[in-house]
Amino acid sequence: MYVEYRLDSVKQIANMSSEEVVSREVEYLLAETKYVCSLDEKSLAKAKKELNENPRERQAAVDQLREWILQQPHFKCCTDTRFLLMFLRRSAFSQLEARALIENYVAVICTKLAFWGKDIDTHSKSLKSALEVGVLIPLPIPDDEGRRIILNTPGCIKSGKGYTNFDILKATYAIMTYLVQFDEATQVNGIVVIDDQTNVTPKVMTYIGLDNLVKVLSFFMNKYPIRMKGWHFYNAAVVAQTIISALKPFLPQKIQDRMFLYGNNMEDVYKHIPMRLLPREYLPDEYTGPCQGSLSAIQASYKKALNSKAVRDKIWNITSSGMTYDETKKPGDVGPQASFRKLNID
How far apart are CA 135 and CA 174, in angstroms? Predict the structure, then answer.
């Protein structure tokens, strides 16, 4: 007997304030009770059709993956049901694909990208300063397909403001951990990124480090357990072109096909993302219809959540001693094979 639980539909969420949406997410993130599915009917149908998810087999698949992880001597990671579902869904519930994905994830985060995803403490002074910048802001209301819209504004980064370039990168990881790893609707429906390149200068890119950025984004687009459904570059000038040129060799064709470049005319963006799904700051003065609210209010809600002790502890436990990798302890025998399902995750 399996149990299903439904969170609010997209239409219901659209009537909530950003603070109400974030409060609901925090409550779900910190829930210590037995797992119950939070997908609405539409998302559940998509999970079945596109990700091979069978509600009656879901928990057994999670238990099987968890058991395998606990048997591995060379790496350790979070084994919460929602965390493991992120990898199973990204792998269309193939145990072999999920194992490879999660092992690679832990290995890369613990070694090559430790500057991005390891030892994240949202209570540290420098990371608090980085979160104040608001480089990455998840908008509370998803689109009609249930996809979460994320606004990226690297032009607001400035040196000498109490944070380092790595603090900025860790802040983005903290947001993605909070938003993606424990939000089932986002796991299933994916994300759409609006990359606002306003005020992004060569100086900003030098500060972040183009090499660091390419490493993070190439991993994110290829091996991070997320469904990237759209990447919209607004005000894409020379710096954006440089980033894209550096990234393209590492991006699968399907991601390249989902990239859109615009000038400084928001009318072009509105053709792809309706005004009602944008923050007030990105709308014309004469617009009086519904919107996501103000960026300051949205950012304040997420900042408050990430600064709470409970959320801080959750993220810290996942990214510190709760995630380790030691290549020297990896066994030579990979063990018995598990079921494999053809991927269909576009």
Answer: 12
**Residues spanned by the domain of 211:** 124-307
Residue 11 CA to residue 146 CA, distance in Å, equals: 10
Is the residue at 78 inside a domain?
A: yes
- pLDDT one-digit tens code per residue, 61-102: 999 999 999 999 999 999 999 999 999 999 999 999 999 999
The span from the first CA to the last CA of the chain, in angstroms, equals 31
Together in a domain, 35 and 151 = no
132 lies in the same domain as 110: no
Q: Would residue 235 count as lying in a domain? A: yes
The label of the residue with tokens 């290995």 reads 107
User: Tokens at residue 14, please?
Assistant: 């659209």
Q: Nearest to residue 25, comparing CAs of 183, 151, 191? A: 183
**Dihedral of the CA atoms 317, 92, 58, 81 (nearest 10)?**
0
In tens, the pLDDT along 100-133 reads 999 999 999 999 999 999 999 999 999 999 999 9
SS (H, E, C) the chain: CCCECCCCCHHHHHCCCHHHHHHHHHHHHCCCCCCCECCCHHHHHHHHHHHCCCCCCHHHHHHHHHHHHHCCCCEECCCCHHHHHHHHHHCCCCHHHHHHHHHHHHHHHHCCCHHHHCCCCCCCHHHHHHHHHCCEEECCCCCCCCCEEEEECHHHCCCCCCCCHHHHHHHHHHHHHHHCCCCHHHHHHCEEEEEECCCCCHHHHHHHCHHHHHHHHHHHHHCCCCCEEEEEEECCCHHHHHHHHHHHHHCCHHHHCCEEECCCCHHHHHCCCCHHHCCHHHCCCCCCCCCCCCHHHHHHHHHHHHHCHHHHHHHHHHHCCCCEECHHHCCCCCCCCCCCCCCCCC
